[in-house]
Design brief:
361 residues; alpha/beta; 2 domains; 6-stranded mixed beta sheet; 13 helices; 20% strand; binds fe (ii) ion
């Protein structure tokens, strides 16, 4: 079998080929990977018979239609995909073939309703439903945190820890990981029950950049998008969202501190800490209240109020939210801006209240 990742950036396009028949497929191509793919196919003596998108991409224009037209091969997606130029729709349990080499298809929604994972000789080509140390967002059009939990904790459960998976993105130069490693280290596997996972995902929702719907629509219509509508500097959605530090650096997540520890330190009154509450105004004044002395800057306002926060660059900062999701995002953002000592309050104000500690409203 031939198996290669074609791109140099953080988006990954895979080439899979069968040695006997010389048939090949391309998975999640970028338009700009066309020359590389053509050269590699030529060098390896392979003939492309299909190009597959693992889901409707929201962060970049799919190269699938252009590849299918240029190589005169099929463009294949899940049956829920709405792109009008798909030649063949596939569904859970289907088997694609390169010569006599089978490639199983499983439906893995959550990041996108039409998400699929291809099983190539026991390797999982999973798109964005699972990253190394993270996962694609489940709050964009087509995403569903409930389905995301099911895919990660039920559909993937039948695969052993040794199973290798190859995501469609990585921002740290890594190529693959194993399910076992992710089960031990990826925060998306920490929530064993569906309810707490959905709540965790809802807590960490970021805003949706305006161009996401344009990209999705362009992929539905199989159109190219004008350059000015793309994310700034050609960066993709995760970077434009400012969520990349949290979503993609699972093994470098910001440090956390527990409520007991914080409460004791406040009681002792030593070593002043900036307690940065990043919830919305109605939450800050709501039934969970806030910790006396907390400095309130909603997550969405952090960027524009960085001039205020910069005064605390050398201070110890503990970020706080409702349950500890958004505060991790805030801590990651401050870390990326070179703040020196930032931690996130584990469990947030829910955990604080559960201990009966005093709150202000
Ligand atoms: Fe995606």
């Amino acid at each position: 079998m031939f198996f290669e990742q074609l791109n140099t950036g953080h988006h990954k396009t895979y080439l899979v080929g069968d040695e006997e028949s010389r048939e090949a497929m391309i998975i999640d191509p970028l338009v700009e990977s066309y020359e590389i793919a053509r050269n590699r196919l030529h060098a390896l003596g392979l003939r492309i018979t299909m190009t597959v998108d693992t889901h409707t991409h929201a962060d970049h224009i799919s190269g699938g239609p252009a590849f299918a037209a240029s190589f005169r091969c099929e463009f294949i997606m899940h049956e829920l995909a709405r792109a009008k130029c798909v030649d063949r729709h596939i569904t859970n349990g289907d088997i694609l073939t390169l010569g006599e080499m089978p490639i199983d298809v499983i439906h893995t929604p959550g990041h996108a309703a039409d998400g699929i994972t291809l099983i190539v000789e026991s390797r999982l080509m999973c798109g964005d439903v699972l990253f190394i140390g993270g996962a694609g967002r489940s709050d964009l059009p087509g995403g569903d945190p409930d389905e995301h939990w099911h895919t990660l904790h039920r559909t993937f459960q039948s695969f052993p820890d040794s199973t290798l998976f190859f995501p469609s993105h990585d921002y740290n130069g890594r190529d693959f990981s194993s399910l076992g490693h992710e089960r031990r280290n990826n925060p998306h596997f920490e929530h064993k029950d569906r309810y707490s996972y959905v709540r965790w995902q809802q807590d960490r929702q970021a805003s949706t950049p305006p161009w996401v719907n344009k990209v999705i629509d362009a992929n539905f219509l199989c159109q190219a998008l004008p350059v000015e509508d793309r994310a700034e500097d050609g960066k993709d959605a995760c970077h434009a969202w400012g969520c990349a530090p949290y979503l993609t650096e699972g093994d470098k997540l910001p440090k956390e501190v527990g409520v007991i520890n914080l409460h004791e330190r406040i009681e002792r009154g030593k070593n002043p800490i900036l307690m940065l509450d990043v919830r919305e105004e109605d939450e800050f004044r709501g039934h969970l209240g806030h910790i006396d002395g907390a400095y309130h800057v909603p997550l969405d306002e952090m960027e524009e109020r960085m001039d205020e926060l910069i005064a605390f660059k050398h201070s110890e900062i503990i970020t706080i939210c409702r349950s500890g999701g958004r505060s991790l995002t805030a801590a990651a953002k401050l870390n990326s801006d070179a703040f020196e000592d930032v931690k996130s309050l584990r469990g947030g104000m829910i955990a604080w209240n559960s201990r009966g500690y005093r709150i202000d409203k």
